[in-house]
Amino acid sequence: MRHRTKTHLLSKEQIEALFLRAKVGRLGTFSQDAFPYILPMHFVYFEDKIYMHGLPKGKKIDNIMFNPNVCFEIDEMFSLLHEGVENPCDVNTAFNSIIANGTASIVTDFDEKKIALSKIVEKFTPHLADREMPLKMINTTAVIRVDILTCAGRYYK
């Protein structure tokens, strides 16, 4: 392992802060055709879990049902570090990132779904957070929960 990946670790507090401020993460699943499937997803992080929502049918749902082991990645790039660099191979990037491995499941408990969807509304459309969510939308929207098993955050500046 390169030295930097051992020494440039985000603290638990920094990881949590990045989870809270990031708007999009990438969900990686296993498909039955033996190819990985990665897609960007809006998400919320609370109670040490990641929640996402979407259509109740499709490749990501099929993949989760096939194999619930998933990876979730978030990154933020601040800048290229190229001042005074003469060799293109020496240019670097200032960034923060998180890679979490976990187990995904489709939430079936109505109350958990409602809470997760409410948290998503609060994060992405806070001006609508006081509105009652239609029962039909709660019932017909898939909510995916990722129970995090391992999580590592890294940075470089």
Summarize the structure.
The protein is an alpha+beta fold and 157 residues long. It is built from 5 helices and 7 strands; from the N terminus they run H-H-E-E-E-E-H-E-E-H-H-E. It has a 7-stranded antiparallel sheet with strand order 2-1-5-6-7-4-3.
Key features?
157 residues, 42% strand, seven-stranded antiparallel beta sheet, globular, alpha+beta
Helices, strands, pairings?
Elements: H1 3-7, H2 12-21, E1 24-30, E2 36-42, E3 44-46, E4 49-54, H3 59-66, E5 69-81, E6 92-106, H4 110-124, H5 135-140, E7 142-156
Antiparallel strand pairs: 1-2, 1-5, 3-4, 4-7, 5-6, 6-7
Task: Describe it.
The protein has 157 residues and is α+β, with helices and mostly antiparallel strands. The protein is built from 5 helices and 7 strands; from the N terminus they run H-H-E-E-E-E-H-E-E-H-H-E. The protein has helices spanning 3-7, 12-21, 59-66, 110-124, 135-140; strands spanning 24-30, 36-42, 44-46, 49-54, 69-81, 92-106, 142-156. It has a 7-stranded antiparallel sheet with strand order 2-1-5-6-7-4-3. The model has no long low-confidence stretch (mean pLDDT 93).
